[in-house]
Amino acid sequence: MPCFFSTAAIHLLKDIKVQAIIGPETSTQARFIIDLGNRTNVPILSYSATSPYLSAKQYFVRTALNDVSQVPAIASLIQYFSWRQVVPIHEDSDFGRGIIPYLEDALLNVEAHIPYQSIIPSVPTDDQIEAELNKLMTMQTRVFVVHMSPKIAARLFMLAHDAGMLAEGYAWIVTDSVGNVFSTLDQNTISSMQGVLGVRPYVVQSDKLLNFDARFHSRYRQQNPGAPDPAKPIIFQYWAYDTAWAIAMALKKAGPLTLGFQIPSLKNSNSSNDLSMLGVSLDGARLIDAIRGTKFQGISGEFVLVDGQRQASVFEIFNVIGNSYQSAGFWTPKFGLRKNPIISSGPHAKVGLNTVIWPGGSGQPRGWEWPVAGKKLKIAVPVKPYNRFVNAGKNTATGNFDVTGYCIDIFDAVMQEMPYAVPYDYVPVTDPNMVTSMTMSYSEMCRQVSLKKYDAMVGDTTIIINRSLYVDFTLPYTESGVQMVVPMKENWSKNLWVFLKPIDPNLWAAILAVFLFTGFVIWLVERKDSRYFGGSTGKQLVNTAYFNFQALISVPKDPKVKKWLSKFALINWILLAWLLEKLYSASLTSMMTVRQLQPTVADLNQLINNGDYIGYQSGSFVRDLLKSLKVDEHKMRDYSPDQYADALKKGSWNGGVAAMFDEIPYLKVFMSTYCRNHTVVGRVYKTGGFGFVFPKGSPLVADVSRAILKVTEGDRIVSIERKWFGDEVACNSQANIIEPGSVITWSSLRGVFFITIGLWIAAGFVYATIWFFQRGQQGEQIQQAVAELAIERVHGDGDENVIWRIGGDSHLLIRLHSHLPPLPLPPSAQEARSGSEAESAIISGDSALEEGRARTSGDSSLEERRDGGEPMTPPAGEPNGALSLLHVDSQNQEIGGLRER
Predict the structure, then answer these.
(1) 767, 759 in Cβ contact below 8 A?
(2) Of 375, 449, 432, which Cα lies nearest the Cα of 695?
(3) pTM score, whole prediction
(4) Which residue in 89, 235, 189 sits closest to 148, CA to CA?
(5) Could you tell me where the beta strands, DSSP code E, fall in 70-136?
(6) How far apart are CA 642 and CA 673, in angstroms?
(7) Would 112 disulfide with which of 101, 107, 527, 763, CB 3.0-4.6 Å?
């Protein structure tokens, strides 16, 4: 047949010298004829050659759809039904093979893959088809995509139906190679295809199309009187009609073709049938450009060529039911699957598909089943020293391995939750290169699963990115992450400077600043009016500091401050000191009475900087994690979980380690026993947690993951955890650690300090205002007050100053009531004043008293009386040895006074 079409094409080009060729029908025929068109510059238009191998060359135009255009619609179906494995069944030809690479890529995008390709010979026998079907029956996959010529497809479905492969659990999808000619299939073939889904281009039922169908049937009856009515035209016939119209419109657009052909010289060939005798069309370039640029609304839809071929718009998803089919939905490149052909994202667009009738009349197939000749799954289990997660210990009596552990119980519970029975056996895996029968590394075990040596792996296997590149993990069933556990050491209760620890150093500095500032304010305000804050600089500093410190203990009963600003500052200081004293006492009591511990190491950076050794579990991926975190390989040591405590006890420089890195589930088990002197610190290095391992693309992964959710969200997980880990209350080792938050810090009390500072600023502003106001009246006060006299009590419960201002119109009267021995006087004064005794003195004006003697100066006067040396009798009511001071005005009216024994 290809030779016939090749000969016909050569005849048309050589003898008739056609300007364009419509055809050929098949992709195999088209390959040779396309080469002829490119050699002769004659456009070749095909409405039925759909293979992707037929690239749109310069003089080839595909007015049909490329087979690749339907691949996204098929992938959307696979994704919609959540199938993970698909087996394509195709014929062994360019047409059959052309779609496969594109289908593989599209399925990968929807997380599905092709585990096997079923190839049927291009001219098969029934035995060859049956052999391939029997092979498919022994496999797990139950989703098939059929892409072959209609004749071979019809034979395939007849034999598959007889083999029971169009029954419950199977899913079949046919490409448009069958879908486009479905109406031409016989009833026996359609009956064997019940429940099959198909994909084909969708043709809108327009008035132009209906008119074409009517005219087609009318002309057929005229040309074939008495013959039965023909079948309804198929889409290839619509495309052929539109192709003829496209050439007609292109010829009209290009104008008359008059240049003809350029014939090669006869001397270049010895044979009239030689291809070298074919001429070259001089009008071909102009015509092919006109054809490629032609656009119109044809009966099959809009005719538009992009890169020399027609573009896909809408595909119909049909479902074979009874003697025909029904529409299950539609697919568009923009909106995906829709229940109706309305190309809109508005409220009328119904996402998804209509009800589908599957083979056997059952519900949606899950896409895979246990094969008829299948066997139990081989589940790899690591062999390692005893631990609660997985333990494959060798039974000395039987010589076999007994598999137990938390992970094993979880897997058994998950298998019981599966919607179907999954037979399996545990296979302990050891490293043949190790004498101790220990397991190989977990990453190597995962590689064994990826190579299909084992069907799955169960154990404490962590989900990490490197392993997920070659195996599939289920959802995790444990908490994820890696942390480090370190020993704890006694903290502050035995420290020499423990009394400083309750308060943060920054807060100590703030307290000292407030202490000094309060003293400065009191000294500044009181120094002029109080001799207590006067004197030398050293005396002022000591007295001020002592006064402030005394205020911390208790408020003085006889305060030495008189001014309101200094009292205000003192009150602020006392309130602040009272608050700090309460907080300090509580924190210090906690430190001294409770066992205080702190981690020996804070984080990984500290370990690296100190050059400490770091431990990890043997065979764990944590080693690679530490290496990625810049830990020196020579500073890492591996241990089994039961060796952690001893290694941490020895320490980094005594053959042990300073910290142990492991996954959080293991650390929880360790801390449940050793939490008293250990703690988990540092950041959490996130991982995926523990998961079960399956080969890439395993159909079990999705169902096992759903079963894991049922187990972990129900009560079953609680009983399993209680079985292996008991009812232990989680150890809270952090309760014995004084965290930075329990220490009184500047940040926790800065509000109090801000209020204190604000009050000081307000008081300072008021004091400055008053000071400036009083300064204006200072001159008048100086005129009124000529002198001041301070009398100080030197005994009693406290110190007190009595200050008088002595004006120009007043004087101070001093009386002595006792028989006092005369004060020694100079010889000249003794002669002048022998036998006399001072009884009293009146000081007025600018006067002073020095060393017990009365001296006068300025306008003051001094009177002395002596009563013959006889002792004076004190006035009634005055005790012996009393001193009376009277402050009187110019009329001798008493203003104030003081009497002291």
Answers:
(1) no
(2) 449
(3) 0.57
(4) 89
(5) 87-91, 118-120
(6) 11
(7) 107
In whole angstroms, give the CA distance from residue 745 to residue 521: 26
Element spanning 162, H or E: helix 150-162
Contact between residue 440 and residue 429 where contact means Cβ atoms under 8 Å apart:
yes
Query: What tokens were used for 469?
Result: 């590149």
- Chain-wide mean pLDDT for the chain? 78
Cβ contact 588:502 at 8 Å: yes
Strand-pairing partners, residue 126, are none
Handedness of CA 326, 331, 336, 340 (dihedral sign): negative
Structure tokens at 817: 């009531």
What the block records as the tokens of 840 is 């009293």
Residue 45 pairs with which residues in a beta bridge? 22, 61
**Alpha carbon 490 to chain centroid, angstroms:** 36
pLDDT tens digits along 357-370:
999 888 889 888 76
Taking only the tens place, the pLDDT of each residue in 167-177 is 998 999 999 99
Measuring CA to CA, how many Å separate 299 from each of 142, 304, 342? 39, 13, 19
**Residue labelled with tokens 């005849």:** 11
Q: Which amino acid is at 734?
A: Q
Q: What is the DSSP string of 736-766?
A: GB--GGGSB-HHHHHHHHHHHHHHHHHHHHH
**pLDDT score at 894:** 53
- Residue pair 412/711 in contact (Cβ under 8 Å)? The answer is no
Rounded Cα gap, residues 492 and 501, in angstroms: 8
From the number of C-beta atoms within 10 Å of its C-beta (0-12, 13-18, 19+), residue 730 rates as exposed
Query: CB neighbours of 307 closer than 8 A, spacing ≥ 6?
Result: 56
Helix (H, G, I), strand (E, B) or coil at 769: helix
Instruction: Of 707, 721, 712, give the one whose Cα is nearest residue 414.
Output: 707
Burial 210-230 (b: 16+ CB within 10 A, else e): eebeeeeeeeeeeeeeeeeee
pLDDT(493) > 90: no
- Mean per-residue pLDDT for 434-458? 82
Mention every residue, 6+ apart, whose C-beta is less than 8 A from residue 412: none
Determine the Cα–Cα distance for residues 112 and 427; give it in Å rounded to an integer. Answer: 28
Average pLDDT, stretch 26-39?
85
Q: 827: Cβ–Cβ under 8 A, 6 or more apart, which residues?
A: none
Angle (CA) 223-229-235 rounded to 5° is: 95
Cis peptide before 423 (omega within 30 of 0): no
φ, ψ for residue 596, nearest 5 deg: -100, 125
- Banded model confidence at residue 158, pLDDT cuts 50, 70, 90: very high
Is the predicted pLDDT of residue 577 greater than 70, yes or no? yes
SS3 of residue 422 by DSSP = coil
What's the pLDDT at 303? 92
Q: Average pLDDT, stretch 751-762? A: 74
SS3 803: strand
Please give the C-alpha separations between residue 237 and each of 113, 177, 185, 233, 313, in angstroms, as whole numbers.
35, 14, 16, 6, 18
Give per-residue pLDDT as tens, 221-266.
888 888 887 778 899 999 999 999 999 999 998 888 877 888 876 6
Choice among 263-277, 306-320, 322-336 with the minimum mean pLDDT:
263-277
Residue 495: the pLDDT is 57
Residue type, 11: H
The three-class DSSP label of residue 862 is coil
Q: How would DSSP label each residue in 175-228?
A: -HHHHTTGGGS-HHHHHHTTT-EEEEE-----HHHHHHHHHHHHHHHHHSTTSP
Region 314-338: mean pLDDT is 92
What one-character DSSP code corresponds to residue 85? B
- For residue 618, which of 407, 406, 458, 441 has the smallest C-alpha distance? 441
Question: Angle, nearest 10°, between helix axes 564-593 and 537-553?
Answer: 60
Q: Which of 235-249, 694-708, 852-866 has the lowest mean pLDDT?
A: 852-866
Q: How far apart are CA 734 and CA 628, in angstroms?
A: 29
Q: Compute φ and ψ for 449, nearest 5 degrees.
A: -65, -40
